[in-house]
């Protein structure tokens, strides 16, 4: 059964207040400082004016990229950026793997998969910035209300996922397995572009999906779906999307790379400021960004949502932007890629192999340590990542 949120820790609220205060100062200067601001990078080095195309998928997780573009923050920090929109992850993955893009919005597990070369798409890649944490949900068709009371009732369902190498797909598999449902034999996981999920739900092509905003909100507003669980309830503060950089590009364009990161940090601070929620939603709603009604972002930004039973909650950490990259989380993602047979012969269920794959995508200065995570009721040790799943019987380490 869905469960209630735990109260937020003081350090989380303190961090949010800090971001809000920083953003209030930022917003007042963001536009005023644009004139002539492309002449120097954030670190004082000469600006790298080499054109850079950043690919992204139009979902709420990409908000830092869109806001940085809209407010001219890339230019302010010395990066000559244009954005290119992709309708789904498969097309973006191909464009990046074939070097049409050097910097891209990626689902965080994608960075591990492409850097490790688990498919024929291989490219040395760094996870340079975590765009958002939390902000996803499992949404089921409204017709299932009253007949679905636990994960066991998911058996026989067709569930949409945005990409195999997504925290969505990995977390859903783990959630089902933790509740005695085999995510291979008992359900069908179907790849769908985020924009197609609600349409498929409406015509009963799928029974539900795990996906980003604003598509959970769209399903609710259309009456076609209801939120079963926030993914935050499965794993609080889980990373979702990132900005990835090709390692060879970053080495050749360090000034531009730092400019991109600085712009994203500033945009994330703005997105964390309640006073800026409305203006941010209006900006993101534009056709060139998310092309979605601004009101669909009200809930994700304010934290207000209705649970499976129609009860209204306010969770200020429903979706966060710009949290530090968590090395332990990347180890968990690498573990799940191996566990479910998505790592081929390259990323296998071996502790050293998994830790190496995770460490490889981390930015300089970050390293895997022993800070544990609680995910779907399992205590996950990033220094011994293959341990802890033996209670799941047949649904382990495929």
UniProtKB/TrEMBL annotation:
Cross-referenced InterPro entries: NrtA/CpmA_ABC-bd_dom, TAT_signal
Entry protein name: Nitrate ABC transporter, ATP-binding subunit
Keyword Ribonucleoprotein carried by entry: no
GO molecular function: ATP binding
Residue ranges of the TM segments: 21-41, 53-74
Sorted UniProt keywords: ATP-binding, Cell inner membrane, Cell membrane, Membrane, Nucleotide-binding, Transmembrane, Transmembrane helix, Transport
Highest rank taxon of the organism: Bacteria
Compartments, record wording: Cell inner membrane
Matches recorded under PROSITE patterns: TAT
Family: Belongs to the CmpA/NrtA family.
GO cellular component, one term: plasma membrane
Pfam families from the UniProt entry: NMT1_2
Keyword Thylakoid applies: no
UniProt source species: Corynebacterium casei UCMA 3821
PANTHER family per the UniProt record, alphabetical: ALIPHATIC SULFONATES-BINDING PROTEIN-RELATED (PTHR30024), BLL4572 PROTEIN (PTHR30024:SF43)
Gene3D superfamilies xref list: Periplasmic binding protein-like II
